[in-house]
Design a protein that fits this description.
The complex is a heterodimer of chains A (about 160) and B (about 675).
Chain A lengths: L1 H6 L5 H17 L6 H12 L4 H11 L3 H10 L11 E6 L2 H5 L2 H12 L12 E6 L11 E3 L2 E3 L7 H5 L3
Parallel strand pairs in A: 1-2
Antiparallel strand pairs in A: 1-3, 3-4
Chain B lengths: L1 E5 L2 E5 L5 H7 L23 E4 L6 E2 L10 E3 L3 H16 L15 H9 L14 E4 L3 E4 L8 H9 L6 E3 L6 E3 L16 H5 L5 E3 L3 H8 L5 E6 L20 H11 L3 E4 H24 L8 E2 L4 H10 L13 H16 L7 E7 L3 H5 L6 E2 L2 E2 L3 E4 H10 L21 H4 L6 H15 L19 E7 L14 E8 L1 H12 L7 E5 L19 H14 L10 H11 L5 H7 L27 E3 L6 H10 L8 H39 L1
Parallel strand pairs in B: 1-5, 11-12, 11-14, 13-20, 14-17, 19-20
Antiparallel strand pairs in B: 1-2, 3-4, 3-5, 6-7, 6-21, 7-10, 8-9, 15-16, 18-19
Helix pairs in contact in B: 8-10, 8-14
Classes of the chains: A alpha+beta (about 160), B alpha/beta (about 675).
Amino acid sequence: MKTETVKCCCQNSEDGEKYQEIANIIDLYKDKKGSLIQILHLAQEIYGYLPLKLQKFIAASLEIPLSEVSGVITFYSFFSTKPRGEHTIRVCLGTACYVRGGKKLIERLQEILKIQAGDTTNDGKFTFEIARCIGACGLAPAMMIDDVVYKQVNVNKLESILSKY
Amino acid sequence: MINLTINGKKISASKGTTIMEAAKANNINIPNLCYLQDVHKFGSCRICVVEVKGAKTLQASCMTAVSEGMEVYTNSDKVRKARKVLYELILSDHSQECLSCKRNKSCELQELGKTLGVEETRFDGKRSNCVIDVSPSITRDTSKCILCRRCVTACNEIQGNGVINAQNRGFDTVIGTAMDLPLGEVNCVFCGQCTVVCPVGALKETDSVEDVWDAINNREKYVVAQTAPAIRVALGEEFGYEPGTLVTGKLAASLCALGFDSVFDTNFTADLTILEEGTELLHRLKNAVSGKEAILPMITSCSPGWIKYIEHTYPEKLEHLSTCKSPHTMMGALIKSYYAKLIDTDPNNIYVVSIMPCTAKKFEISRPEMKNDDIPNVDAVLTTRELASMIKGAGIDFVKLPDEEFDNPLGMSTGAADIFGITGGVMEAALRTVYELVTGREIPFKDLHVKPIIGFDRVKTAEIKIENPLPEYQAFDGVTLNVAVTSGTKGARQLMDEIISGKSKYHFIEVMGCPGGCITGGGQPRSQDPKIGEKRLKGLYIEDESKPLRKSHENPYIMEIYKEFLEYPGSHISHELLHTHYVRRGIFNELTDERFAINGGIKSVKYKLNEGSSQNGNISDRRKRVREEPESEELLVLRAENEKLKNELADTLETVEIFKQVIADHSCNKSD
């Protein structure tokens, strides 16, 4: 019953399809304890981000409190509650990358993209974020675009990297 | 048994005991902060650390179990120094406006500082964002929160509501609702259990004291007080009495001394509730035995926390609720109709103040249903704690007050009304009357106490067989009445789920929103005594047994008010004044547009102070705080997200600065 009332919030059919896909995933994981992160991960993949409406849907379907769902989402920087660009740029500012010039990459990217870190470009193409160590210290300074890691990046390489997307 | 030494003293403790418990049993108190006996064991504050020989680090004594041969030192130099540093670190992100805090001198953090002998605060750094969220019942001030998570335990584990939880991460962690929504916009039932366990001033009732003083000092207003049953066994604690001490006479006297024009007893309308609700139950039962449509079980409706819970969680099941208003709103309605006529006063000039053990009742009086002719039944609700602060503030020597009586006609009550304050009490009171109405005989339990439903078990049940009823109730002959009692929303969920699955065998269910009933309500004095509920329970049963009349239908003033004004239980005028209806809210408030926070605009205000403002800055900022314009949920969410990202960026930039410094230092050293 609770689930139904929430399902009504899908505004258009595309949204509806996505919600249905997420509902299927929830059904798959529902009885497994501790699968909230997994569900959120997949839901973000399907929906792009995790707005309050979707959080409510997940909380109601799993019959767990909304504050728990949002608590997990806000704990992990991987999850976003805001619409994201088509591609996510993550510049590493871990110790090694910082020392090797990560900050310069950030300044230059802000210039190129005309947005601040944490924001999404107006055309919705890129979301630009700062990451705390992506585990590629040997390749510092490193950045990621979606799943691809770019090693030993310098400011001059940025434009050619971005042009691939 | 396990043998160990604590501070060189040989002791033994049973397996599974924590170091803290073992120490306490041997008269060694270990300073602690987040720990709350039988309620919360989380180890988040680390204040209770002790030295254990052989262990690499200091151990949190509230979490570490004793083991054979353990050597524990609770007061070594290392331990004392660590505790002080921990305390100072907590203070470094705690608003230190102690002198202007409601919890001044009743604050566990303050007390701890005294115990630890802390005389300085060496750490002065960045402070967390401060959110002040004012709902009609509860005010949250995150600048005072020390992240002990007792409230999270109360809301999630004890009540099973999960309205608040830890949000964000690390330094940005706040205890709050999902996406920083105001409490008044989510499914908070306003039970206030979080305010009872909060060690500091981060969670408290939304203040009504000033409104009440304004009314008392307004010569135009006729100001009436009424007090709930549970106040009389708890108020004394605020003045040094043993928990559970009855202070009924002093309570009435102190209200007179405060300047209330009339002092009535909500107990009177508790008796009235029994007649109205009992009649409703008999009506539903009659329909059921004669094969007509009847919605059973019927569920009590005295507890506004429970009402809000069912409206959110089971909006399809509202018809199970009795239509009776809660006793204090019934009283308000009678004061502004029946009593107004008696004293020939315009009800618009009457100001009704309810003294309640409850925070949810502050919300309840703001409900549009709790109005008659557009006049609210009750104008203000004070918690037991607020009343105590008013009495102290007015310079009234409570202990030396002579006992006084409540005013009549709305001040007399039977013993049945007193036990409304305890889980199982409303049921027992109802059974005393209903059984006698049906059979003409007293209920067959010793001292009129329905023993199976007394006590603090989560769900209690009883069966009462009706034999040889009076002729008009012949249809009930041989019927066994099944009743259930629960307190706390977790128990309510259990009984509601039985109803939904069709397995509920009960005819009548009593639900109270707070575990233990009103005696341990969200507005009661805070106590660290795990037996507090039992002590207050004893007090109310003593009050019940000491009364000459112990069944609601024997109250002569109740009979009089029916004769003169209300006609009969369930009459048209009764329905108008004493009964109500409920609102389908939904778990996310999605079924109603009622919002008791920003969107409502009037009911509640949410303030957001400037981020990162220093504690000194806060004082002036707070004075200047401006009511924000109504905002949409989405906008709020976006803002919260924006805020979070900004903070993350600020964090990063800070790290960058630190590294710059490190590198600069490093290159200096090199050139040396």
